Amino acid sequence: MRWINSRQQKRDHNGQRNTCAACGHDGTTHDPLVLTGDGFRVHRSHTTDPKSGLYGAEQRRS
Asked: What does the angle CA 45 – CA 40 – CA 31 come to, to the nearest 5 degrees?
């Protein structure tokens, strides 16, 4: 099960479901948004870039 925190839920309800919580840009088919371990939606590239503070933070599916 995937977990979304309450702050991201508020972002979702305010029309920001496809807006990256890290950089503010929209997700794309080339760089979709994924959930981090702390429940925020961010670009997959943030979680796969070793130079990013979010490197390795993508939630694992259970």
From this structure: 25
Q: How far apart are CA 56 and CA 13, in angstroms?
A: 27
- Three-point CA angle 6, 4, 36, nearest 5°: 120
pTM of the model: 0.93
Q: What is the DSSP string of 3-58?
A: ---HHHHHHIIIIITTB-TTT-PBP-SSS-EEEBTTS-EEEHHHHH-TTSTTTT-B
**pLDDT (tens digit per residue) in 10-34:** 999 999 999 999 999 999 999 999 9
Integer Cα distance of 57 and 62 in angstroms: 15
